[in-house]
Design a protein that fits this description.
Blueprint (H helix, E strand, L loop, with lengths): L1 H21 L23 E4 L11 H8 L6 E4 L4 H6 L2 H20 L2 H32 L1 H10 L6 H17 L6 H22 L1 H5 L1 E2 L2 E2 L4 H6 L3 H31 L13 H21 L4 H31 L1
Antiparallel strand pairs: 1-2, 3-4
Helix pairs in contact: 1-8, 4-5, 4-8, 5-8, 5-13, 6-7, 11-12, 11-13
Amino acid sequence: MANLLKGKMKILFLCLFVLLTCTACSSPRATDGKLKVDQIISSEKVEIRKDLVNVTDIENEDLKEEYAKYDDNDLITIEPMTFGEAFSSGWFTGLIVWPLAQLINIIASFTDAGWGIILTTILIQGVVFLFTKKSQMSSQRMQEIQPEMQRIQNKYAGKTDDHSRLMMAQETQKLYQKYDIHPFGTLLVTLIQLPIMMGVYYAMTRASSVVLGSFMGISLSQTPLYGFQHLEIAYIIIYVLMIICSLVSLKMPQILKKRQDKIDHVKKKEYLDTKNNAMNSMNTTMYFSTGLIAILYISWPIAMAFYWLVSSLTRMCFSVFLHSMIVKQKKAS
C-alpha cells in the first residue's frame, strides 16, 4: 500500500509539472497564424521577409511602428536572442525552449535544418532513455508476464467479493515484484515525454533555421494540413509515415515478444484464448495515443511530424536493445 501511495504521489507531481509546463509559454503565433517576429530565436543575425511573419501583435511598440513602414517584400533583420532575453519571458522558454532552438540552429549552421532536427531528436531521445531506462525495461517486461497475468485474471474471473479482489491484487503485486516491474513505468515515460514534446514544439516553431529552412525541398514551417490541401505528396508521406512509425514503436514490445516466442517454440496456452483485458486495455491506449498525435500534428509545422517520426524510429531501436537485454538475462538465469 505504501508503494502504491508513493507511486500515486509521483504521478500527481508529474501531472502538476506537465500542467505548469503546458501553461508556461504564451503562443508564439499571432491570430493570423503567422509567427510573431519577436519570437524568433536565432544564434546569429538573419533576415526574413515581412510577409512571412507577424509584426502587428508584438509587444515592442517602437519595432511595431518601424515595421509598419516596411513593404511586404522588405527584409527584417533578426538579432540573436540571448539566454537572458529568453529567460526574462519565462523559465520554460529560458531553460528548455531556448537551448533546444539554439542546438537546432547550431547544428543546422553546419548542415541544414533537417539534419539539425534529426541530430537534436536523437540526442533528446538518448537523454530521455538514460533517465527512463528502468521504467522502459518494466514496460518491456510487462509483455513477458502477460501469460501469467492472464492466468491470475482467469483464476478470479467473476469473483467480486472483497477477499477475492484482495487475493488477486496480492498475487499481481507478487508477480510484479518477481520480475522487478513497476506498473507506473509506462505512465512515467509518457509524462516525461509530454513537457519535452511541448519544448520541442516551441523550439521548432521559433528556431530561425527551421522558420527559414527546408529539408529535401520541403519547407519545415508548413503544416501537414497544408500538404493535404495543396496535394503536396512529400508532406503527406512524412505525416503518414509518422503515424505508422508512432504506432509501431508503441507495439514494438508486443512484436518482439511474439517473435521471441516463435524462436523459443513457445506454445499458446489455453487460458490465453479467453479475453485478455490487460492486453486489450493496452492496445486501446496505444491506438488512442496514436490518434491524439495524428490530430495534434496535422496542424503543427511539418518539422514536428519529422521530429516525431525520428523519435519513433529511435524508440524502436531502444526497444530492440532492451529486448535483447531481457533475453540475455533470461538465458543467464
